[in-house]
């Protein structure tokens, strides 16, 4: 079945819907010192991850290259944050609150309850070593604090952790 192309208005509506799910996310940064608004940072990270970025460095490079695309949805008047700034921004955010917002958004897309959606969100939960009872193996993503939110571990597939 051929996929239908999304119009510009539909894409804008989807971005607005995504950002509305994060309205309750507290931004503990000092308002006078905020160079990059949280909604712009969240949008950058969402689009970067959807494009295949797996680290703050890759997301920052994506933002530099796709600034014109990003400006279709938000002003990005000061450009996009560097990888260090992305890490610093997400380090001060509440990981459990990010996960809750993200799951609410994903469940709204799928039309399912939030208890059915199981997501290993790269910016909300640092991956853990399965030898210590953690989640899936692979690269550790980002510098976010470990997520204290309850996760239904049964819904994740365990991968063999590479021994070094």
Write structural notes for this entry.
With 164 residues, the protein is an all-alpha fold. 24% of the residues are buried. The chain contains 6 helices and no strands. The chain has one domain.
Overview in brief:
By secondary structure, the chain is mainly α.
The SS-based structural class is: mainly alpha
- Give the low-pLDDT segments: 122-129, 132-147, 149-164
Biggest β-sheet, characterized?
Answer: none
Strand content: under 5%
Keywords:
globular; 164 residues; 40% helix; 0% strand; mainly alpha
Topology:
Layout lengths: L7 H13 L17 H13 L5 H10 L1 H4 L12 H10 L2 H16 L54
Helix pairs in contact: 2-3, 3-5
């Amino acid at each position: 079945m051929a996929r239908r192309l999304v119009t510009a208005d539909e894409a804008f509506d989807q971005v607005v819907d995504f950002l509305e799910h994060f309205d309750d996310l507290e931004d503990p940064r000092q308002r006078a010192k905020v160079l990059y608004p949280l909604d712009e940072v969240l949008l950058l990270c969402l689009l970067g991850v959807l494009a295949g970025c797996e680290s703050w460095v890759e997301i920052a490079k994506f933002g530099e290259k796709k600034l014109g695309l990003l400006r279709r949805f938000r002003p990005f008047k000061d450009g996009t944050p560097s990888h260090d700034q992305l890490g610093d921004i997400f380090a001060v955010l509440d990981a459990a609150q990010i996960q809750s917002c993200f799951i609410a958004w994903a469940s709204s897309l799928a039309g399912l309850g939030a208890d059915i959606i199981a997501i290993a969100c790269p910016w909300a939960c640092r991956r853990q070593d399965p030898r210590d009872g953690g989640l899936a193996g692979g690269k550790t993503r980002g510098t976010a604090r470990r997520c204290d939110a309850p996760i239904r571990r049964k819904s994740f597939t365990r991968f063999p952790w590479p021994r070094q």
